[in-house]
């Protein structure tokens, strides 16, 4: 019975760590969104989560939040991911834990980062810390799925998103657009606001050429508070006009094209030459990995989304079905995956899928 209670207590504090870590979604990347709790005599005396990129890690913030530092010598530190052991933009968290003489450390899961990979745990144990690893490991893996996908699969965590009508269309026929060039909204304003929140949570956003030509999107965060994602645009034959919003230089933008043209590049616009005749999805994933992009949300169009679906190179799909009927138009992508949830947003339906066609986190 005592062991059972002990296990439940460690899980309780690790769940609190996960909840804290979610506060860093959209700001910590490419660092992981780690949560940390410090407990003394079954009372939380300190909490923290990863600061925006370049700032202190969760362990540092948690330790700094403790008012009576003398209690640290009798405390237990809980953290969702192995404390770092290397110098990056900040000093190693493992060193600070040792310096503060915290005797017990409970870790959700080992860090796969090549510069950590068990070295933080080793350093703590060598200093005499009692280290427990693997508490709520599955939940911690789910929480850190972007970071883990990046380091284990060498690509960004990929989210597909689109809106479709009741009869399965993403856009109306071309002549209908010509007669009425204003946007044909499939979803309501609450769903559209949610999409802007999602943009603020991911490192990058991708669209195809047709989406830019037809919609001239900004791909920025406007209906939510947060940073703009890095824009990734496919433009095989250089068809996108220079006065398009995605070419305005206001946000870091990668143009994937088959035609080399140095004139496209400026301070915030970068050119990536790829072979559109080969596995395009894989090439994009590899290039974005090289640029340190840990997560990517793909918002269209249909052909671009289907390219990633056919390559089985996606992790989540978020599909809105609006209360609209087009009758004809651009068909929505065809996808199969594990259904993980359905939510109503007024008269819209949001369906969530996970890719179950490969080994997943």
TrEMBL record:
Could you tell me what this protein is called? Riboflavin biosynthesis protein RibD
The record's listing under NCBIfam families reads: eubact_ribD
Q: Which InterPro entries match?
A: CMP_dCMP_dom, Cytidine_deaminase-like, DHFR-like_dom_sf, Eubact_RibD, RibDG_C, Riboflavin_Biosynth_HTPR
Q: Under the GO molecular function aspect, what terms does this record hold?
A: 5-amino-6-(5-phosphoribosylamino)uracil reductase activity; diaminohydroxyphosphoribosylaminopyrimidine deaminase activity; metal ion binding
The cofactor binding remark recorded in the entry reads:
Binds 1 zinc ion.
- Family of the protein in this entry: In the N-terminal section; belongs to the cytidine and deoxycytidylate deaminase family. In the C-terminal section; belongs to the HTP reductase family.
The keyword NADP belongs to this UniProt entry's keyword annotation: yes
Binding-site residues, substrate: 219, 222, 299
Domain CMP/dCMP-type deaminase per the UniProt entry, residue ranges: 8-132
Where, in this chain's numbering, is NADP(+) bound? 163, 185, 199, 211, 215
User: Catalysed reaction(s)?
Assistant: 2,5-diamino-6-hydroxy-4-(5-phosphoribosylamino)-pyrimidine + H2O + H(+) = 5-amino-6-(5-phospho-D-ribosylamino)uracil + NH4(+); 5-amino-6-(5-phospho-D-ribitylamino)uracil + NADP(+) = 5-amino-6-(5-phospho-D-ribosylamino)uracil + NADPH + H(+)
Q: What is its EC number?
A: 3.5.4.26, 1.1.1.193
List the source organism: Flagellimonas lutaonensis
